[in-house]
């Protein structure tokens, strides 16, 4: 059976046409599925009973199953979802200064193997479909407190979004469509580890914010912690960012994970400034949040301050992103790893 959450509007038009129905039916169904979050075909009450009966043997509206939710003292909520084939993904709701941001996973696992990331350590399972991407938004809405609403979406969870390119582009079209999920382009951000050829395409195919996980100022260090740098070294990445077609006065967000003794020195800060000259950007500094078995440590507050001061004095907009949800295993991949370890232990004992 086909899941109606797996169709963009143009795709639904073709489905409806194949059923011999008028095009406006596609708009009705699409609106019910993505705008009104219909739970079933029967709930589409302005669609004739005859059409609903025709749809039911072939189509369904199906979400993802939330298996576990952890809530931090700071209001961060992290949830683990199970997919049809048993794959598991994580998503996180992060409250911050009047915003409520949902961090969405784009893949089950990740093939890029960044050393500071627990998801990378667990390997890659598969790409997520449109229904699994949008399903995280619908599932998160079910976890909201009274009066809350999701204001921002970031594709910064498990996976490399630009390695699931077509589904991510389809998701963004539904997400930012006023007749679909209705999020503003300005409130949606896609974060990449630096898939250079895809960055060039993405600038033309999507009108949302771009974030790049840079994390080092030399190829030697970056290749060590982000193996993708061996394929797409820093110079090519920076050149792609300089040529990136920014629309509507947008800027690129540079994410820089500060790791003690590795990339947090005064020299690194100075190199970062030189590297980013000519890139329209703001910089997020993220002190590393250690997870069990991590090979790195969190930098001390003094080096974070010094790094921040140097970049700030050079005229950049730079913020130190406060770690959120540290008490609920907020590092990407931690919840899934724990759940799989429990399952393995359960299977062994039974
Ligand atoms: S940081 Fe992102 S790109 Fe790197 S391994 Fe983790 S999920 Fe993949």
Q: How would you describe what is shown here?
A:
There is one protein chain. The chain is 36% helix and 20% strand. The chain is an alpha/beta fold and 350 residues long. It has 2 domains: 2-60, DNA polymerase, domain 1; 65-345, TIM Barrel. The strands form 3 sheets. A 10-stranded mixed beta sheet has the order 3-4-5-6-9-10-11-12-13-14, with helices on one face. Strands 1-2 form a two-stranded parallel sheet. Strands 7-8 form a two-stranded antiparallel sheet. α1 (9-18) crosses α2 (24-35), α5 (130-141) packs across α6 and α11 runs parallel beside α12. The longest helix is centred in the C-terminal third of the chain and has 16 residues, at 334-349. The two termini are 34 Å apart. Iron/sulfur cluster binds next to α4. Iron/sulfur cluster is lined by residues 110, 112-114, 117, 119-120, 158-160, 193, 332.
Secondary-structure map:
Blueprint: E1 2-3, H1 9-18, H2 24-35, H3 49-55, E2 59-60, E3 65-71, E4 77-82, E5 88-96, E6 99-104, E7 107-109, H4 118-122, E8 124-127, H5 130-141, E9 152-155, H6 165-175, E10 188-192, H7 196-205, E11 209-213, H8 219-225, H9 228-231, H10 234-242, E12 252-258, H11 266-275, E13 281-287, H12 301-313, E14 317-320, H13 334-349
Parallel strand pairs: 1-2, 6-9, 9-10, 10-11, 11-12, 12-13, 13-14
Antiparallel strand pairs: 3-4, 4-5, 5-6, 7-8
Helix pairs in contact: 1-2, 5-6, 7-10, 11-12
